[in-house]
Design brief:
Strand order of the largest sheet: 1-2-3-4
Largest sheet: 4 strands, antiparallel
InterPro entries: PepSY-ass_TM (IPR005625)
Strand content: 5-15%
Number of domains: 3
Pfam families: PepSY_TM
Keywords: Membrane, Transmembrane, Transmembrane helix
Distance between the termini: 12 Å
Helix content: 40-55%
Protein name: Peptidase
Number of helices: 13
Radius of gyration: 27 Å
Organism: Curtobacterium oceanosedimentum
Length: about 475
């Protein structure tokens, strides 16, 4: 007998969401669990680092701060003894009393965006130690290690590709899950069990109650982390960057070229998940110039305590002084200073940022746990732990649903698209193609899922 397609069914979309939620969750679950746990640690890493590296970060001297020239000279003498050949890359003056100045040097063998920081007590120029630091955020070794685990599991490009797939699918799995939650909430007699965990239930029903309630609670956090995390990815991140460039949503940068040609100075993502080259100090740089350049910058609108001063990369480029205050309210003013005239030749203020560039910067700072300080870190910690718990609950549910004597649980029934009306199938394909264009890794895996689902359904029907 010829095989005929079943008539369209009203329940096809919920079935598709269930199949998608289960299959995608099963595939990305292990990495999402590691990413969530490492992200939870990364969220509170700044606070942990304050304890781990207390000696380097604190300045015991109560004397007034010496000129930067004295502090830089002390760091250079230290480097000549312990790390000969290093060159000054930038200086970050102590942001508050009791903290150290960081004099940062380039060094062979370090990671991209990583420098050797010498910590100097601004009161007496005593060197408190040295550590490798990473990026604009100034991550110390502990946070850098956690960031690498979070980013790639130390698997290089393979790890980054897998992390991009998992981070992107986190948002899709979350949306599919909240869709299923809404369907069940509409039909449930006890709606409370989908909002708060039902501890009176047992077995699968109790686990499902916890999974559903936790998922609803961390939905916004999961979507936010997925969306902001995509900007650090390889393929999707490039597309986002190209889109922002086409729409003029990029953050402005000061022009450091003294011959009139453009020269970029930084980016939003420096210091977390992507590398970028650091500015190399000029051989003509002297310690006294740091004080002179800073004075010009202060007169030109750079007022924040958290700043970095970078020497020119060559004789035809300017010094730069940038505010790097990541907490609210952020401070992002920057000035380029001509060393021959000690005048500001280019300026950028936070007001110059387009609206979407501001939103991107604020989103990245929040993702890193920097925008709202400890409160931000606590919220991220709870969201990450909630995502990890959802993964565990999902695998437990799969185990609890296994048939008697089976090693694995049952998968939701396939064939949702075969039961869908033509417009439903068309909409799903259009969405999949759109995702393939914007998020290539997600698009390809989603199209693969739809193809496998269709083949399984067709083969199973013909076998029966």
């Amino acid at each position: 007998m010829p095989v005929t397609a079943p008539p369209p069914s009203r329940g096809w979309f919920a079935q598709l969401l269930l199949r998608l939620h289960f299959t995608a969750g099963l595939f990305v679950g292990p990495f999402v669990l590691v990413a969530a746990l490492s992200g939870a640690v990364y969220a509170v890493a700044p606070t942990i680092e304050q304890g781990l590296y207390r000696h380097e970060l604190t300045a015991p001297s109560t004397a007034s701060a010496l000129p930067l020239a004295d502090q830089v000279a002390a760091a250079q003498r230290y480097v000549e003894r312990h790390h000969p050949g290093d060159t000054v890359a930038e200086v970050r003056p102590a942001p508050s009393p009791g903290t150290t100045t960081r004099v940062m040097f380039t060094e062979e063998g370090l990671l991209d965006s990583q420098t050797r920081a010498v910590f100097v007590d601004p009161g007496d120029a005593a060197v408190r130690g040295d550590l490798p630091v990473y990026g604009t955020s100034g991550s110390l070794p502990f946070r850098t290690w956690i960031s690498t685990v979070h980013r790639s599991l130390f698997l290089g490009d393979v790890g980054r590709l897998y992390s991009e797939t998992a981070a992107s699918w986190l948002g899709i799995v979350s949306l599919a899950g909240i869709g299923l939650w809404a369907f069940r909430l509409r039909r449930a007699r006890r709606k409370r069990d989908l909002i708060l965990p039902d501890n009176r239930a047992t077995g699968y029903r109790r686990t499902f109650s916890w999974h559903a309630a936790t998922g609803a609670g961390v939905l916004l956090g999961a979507l936010f982390l997925s969306a902001t995390g995509i900007t650090w990815s390889h393929f999707a991140g490039d597309n986002v960057t190209a889109l922002r460039s086409a729409l003029s949503w990029q953050a402005p940068t000061v022009d450091t070229a003294l011959d009139g040609s453009s020269s970029a100075a930084g980016g939003e993502h420096a210091g977390h998940h992507v590398g970028g080259s650091m500015t190399m100090g000029s051989t003509a740089t002297t310690p006294e110039q740091f004080d002179e350049v800073l004075a010009v910058a202060r007169d030109s609108g750079v007022h924040a305590a958290e700043i970095r001063i970078r020497p020119p990369a060559s004789a035809d480029t300017a010094w730069t002084v940038e505010e790097i205050k990541l907490s609210w309210p952020v401070a992002m003013n920057a000035v380029a200073v001509d060393p021959s005239t000690m005048t500001a030749v280019s300026e950028v203020t936070w007001a110059d940022y387009p609206l979407m560039a501001k939103a991107t910067k604020l989103g990245i700072n929040t993702h890193m746990g920097a925008l709202f300080g400890l409160a931000n870190q606590v919220v991220l910690l709870l969201a990450a732990l909630g995502i990890a718990a959802m993964v565990v609950f999902g695998y437990v549910m799969w185990w609890q649903r296994r048939p008697a004597g089976a090693r694995f649980g049952r998968a939701p029934a396939a064939g949702a698209l075969a039961r869908a009306p033509w417009w439903g199938t068309t909409a799903v394909v259009v969405v999949a193609v759109g995702l393939a264009l914007l998020l290539p890794v997600v698009g390809v895996t989603l199209l693969g899922f739809l193809l496998v689902d269709a083949l399984v359904t067709t083969f199973g029907r013909r076998t029966r």
